[in-house]
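Limitations
The structure tokens in this dataset are predictions for the assembled complex, not deposited experimental models. Users should treat interface geometry with appropriate caution, especially where small molecules or nucleic acid strands are included. An illustrative entry is reproduced here so readers can see what is and is not provided.
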Amino acid sequence: MADFVNIAKQFTEFYYNQFDIDRKQLAPLYRDNSMLTFESASVAGTAGIVEKLSSLPFQQVKHQVSTLDAQPSGDAGGILILVTGALLVDEEQRSMNYSQAFQLLPDGQGSYFIFNDIFKLVFG
Amino acid sequence: MADFVNIAKQFTEFYYNQFDIDRKQLAPLYRDNSMLTFESASVAGTAGIVEKLSSLPFQQVKHQVSTLDAQPSGDAGGILILVTGALLVDEEQRSMNYSQAFQLLPDGQGSYFIFNDIFKLVFG
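Predicted assembly:
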């Protein structure tokens, strides 16, 4: 029953680890019909998404996941994930809170790709 | 193009308004295959969801939406929504931050219902 939870955890761990090491290498996790909304700016497609992520104005970044919840997202075998966490960039001493929603879809080869990706910093 | 954004805004405005007035009346927005994960406790189906929401340990509640982002969530015409906001309950002076992810699906009658609902308080 909770298999989707394990998949969600493994996927996000891999994603944030890769993001923090070298976010230019995230292309294999997206497809040409994927969407990213990062701080309310939306791009679509692998190339546009990786370009957007690569151009973010920081060099070093470290994601720290606080909570992760997941649900099956439909008949196609997708998984909806809500992550809350903290982000530390470059020389900043204080982390920023963020929330991120992913919808993963099966890639037909036993793995998953990111179809929906919405990232938002949380202030206050 | 941005029609899903308007639908997302109208839907969540209606949802939070109804939640804050009388959350027992939210049943028409769910279906028997809907899922709610509220602070990491999961329930499924309209009856279970409304029972869970009704049993939350507060009487008065006021949601205040800070940000809303939306994306189309698949071929079925769904909409994925990420809300960040603040919640004020009962006599508390300080609001709590929350994040909430919804997936809306078309109900076949020109409207939408909530298929996925993940609510999480954000601390720190």
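Some entries come with short summary sentences. For this one: The mean pLDDT of chain B is 95.
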